[in-house]
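Q: I'm writing up a methods section and want to include an example of the input and output format. Could you take the sequence below and give the corresponding predicted C-alpha cells, formatted cleanly so I can copy it straight into the document?
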Amino acid sequence: MPNSSIISSGKTTNEAIENGLKKLNVSRNMVNIKVLESEDKRSFFSILAPRVVKVELTLKDSNQNIEQERKTEKSHTSSIKKEYKPVTAEQLEESESALTDFLDKFLKLIGDNIEYKINKNEYSLEVIINGEEAGFLIGYRGENLYAFQSILSTIANKNSNEKVRVLLDICGYKEKREKTLQDLALKVSKTVEKSKKPVTLEPMQAYERKIIHSALQNSNKVKTESIGEEPRRRVVISLK
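A: Here is the clean output for your methods example:
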C-alpha cells in the first residue's frame, strides 16, 4: 500500500468510507477518517446536482494496527467466555443425549468404520470423530468441519435453557492445522527477511490468524497485522 492517505467519494458518508477501504484493502479500524464534504452541507444552488460526499482515509501507524488486532482477538476470546457460562450437569447430559441420538443415526449413513466419543467439561461438549470414511467431513481448510460443528451446536441447544458450547474435531484435524499454520508462519517470515517484501496470506478464520500472530509475536525481525473484512480477513507478515 504505497499511499498512506487517500480521498474517496460516494453518495453517502458510509459509501465514501467503504469505497476508500476497498481501495486500501484494509478494515475500518486501521484508518483515521476525516469527512471533507458532508451530505448535510448542500446549498440551495447545488440541490439539483448529484450528491457527493468526500472523505479522507489515513492509515494508522502499524503499531496501532497490531495493537488493534490484539484487542480484536482478545475481545473475541472474551465474548466467548461471556457467551458460554458453566452449565448444570443435567443440561450437559440432555445435550449429550441429543447429540448421541443424532450421531448414531447420521454416521451410520456415511459408513461402518466411523466412531466417535463425546468429552464433557463444565460448560462444553467436545465431539471427536475418527475413521477412514470421515475425512470428507473436514472439507477444504476445515469448511465442512465448522459447518458440521454449527449443526451439532444447534442440536445440542435446541431444547436448552442454558448455552452449551460444542466443539468438533475430526481425525485430529485441528491439531494438524495448528502445526501447519505454525510452520507456515516461520517459513513465510524467512521469505520476508530475504526478500524484504511483505507477504499477505490467504483469508483465515480468527482462531487461525491468532495462531499466526502467536507464532511470530516474539520475532525481532518481522511483524504481523490483519487486513480486510470477515470472512476474507488476512494476515500480512512484513519486516519490522
